[in-house]
């Protein structure tokens, strides 16, 4: 599971009760510990452990930077000091969570100790003035279920933003000539998002494969894993090439500091090493390093975002939208030659031959059904967005490769988005509902969320704790 560290900066304002603010700051600390949240505290900055002073803010900023926090959490333990919160948030440039404990009834003399909700209204406005995006968790009690859900949701958002901003993709060879749809703007991805590519030519991959075979140890480990977890319907020497390719790609990803891979996959690769890369892709995907086909850089970006949204608890699968279901008007076939990770399969996968090629090394297995998220980061003409929504696996005819038939709410509406763009025939799926996380993360990375079903109000309601 991914590790996310947040900066914890509970805030107060002087005209409200300081003792009550200290009390709620400590109660919130205890709740975060109970939930297993890793956080950097400010109890060493001042005796109260609260943020309300500009001099303290500078010390807090230095500490949070040094600790490398991935997000900021500002509990408004009474009204709060909105300008100090906004200054800190703008300087750190990480996701921000606003929340305040629900206020008690006034006492017998009509005195209110905190007015936390009122302070949240003020801070939200000032953050907008500072042009700082933020996430809002509804004004609730610490033991309300929406608090725990909101915290976990925010941690996942922080993880997506962290991974997105530090993505480097190993690009193995240029895109296949015929795949004009997978072209991307490398300079623009770097300028807009700090997403970097590490392109290598096919001969460098071939050299890495030969080196892996000579070293043998890691290749033998892969061979043992495959024989235990997959059905093998190819020759031993072909299987060795699959294992060596997997080891080579992992070594190259580590060499260039990459967290995802986009591989040309056909046709030059088959001429060089004599196999399809699908099974090797599947094995590396299973280890949490997404590998996508046809040098689809935007597909690789989608994969790292989707897995980060799931806090690395489930593997994603890279798929083609292919054909409509023969019997279900809202059904569609998601399929590819075989790069899907083993954990996605509902049956023991087989390494064999693909549908459209003569070389060995593809994987065959139907994926598990159940609820899933489908997503696609893409762009053209300088604008970027993320298509996302839900689907469920359904029964359908057998087909070759790794596949699953899915049903969506309205396939015609989705089909129109795929044709009219900026999306293509590739998507990434995961067996989790991470739509709210991806939707919320988009506000921090400058990408427009694009829901293919009209569920925006439901998604917003989930995020704020309804």
How would you sum up this structure, described in words?
The chain is built from 15 helices and 19 strands. The strands form three sheets. Strands 11-12-17-16-15-18 form a six-stranded antiparallel β-barrel. A five-stranded parallel sheet has the order 2-1-3-4-5, with helices on both faces. The chain is α/β, with parallel strands linked by helices. It is 41% helix and 21% strand. The protein has two domains: 5-143, Rossmann fold (3-Layer(aba) Sandwich); 168-464, L-fucose Isomerase, Chain A, domain 2 (3-Layer(aba) Sandwich).
Summarize the structure.
The protein has about 475 residues and is of the alpha/beta class. The chain has 15 helices and 19 strands. It folds into 2 domains: about 140 residues, Rossmann fold (3-Layer(aba) Sandwich), CATH 3.40.50; about 300 residues, L-fucose Isomerase, Chain A, domain 2.
Unreliable spans: none
Named CATH architecture of the largest domain: 3-Layer(aba) Sandwich
Helix content: 40-55%
What's the name of the CATH homologous superfamily of the largest domain? L-fucose Isomerase, Chain A, domain 2
How far apart are the termini? Answer: 26 Å
Tell me, rounded to a whole number, the average pLDDT: 95
Structural class, please? Answer: alpha/beta
Main sheet overview: 6 strands, antiparallel, barrel
Strand residue percentage: 15-25%
In the residues, how many domains can be counted?
A: 2
Count of individual beta strands: 19
Write down the Rg: 25 Å
Major sheet: arrangement of strands: 11-12-17-16-15-18
Might you state the CATH topology name of the largest domain? L-fucose Isomerase, Chain A, domain 2
Compute the number of helices: 15
Report the principal-axis shape.
elongated
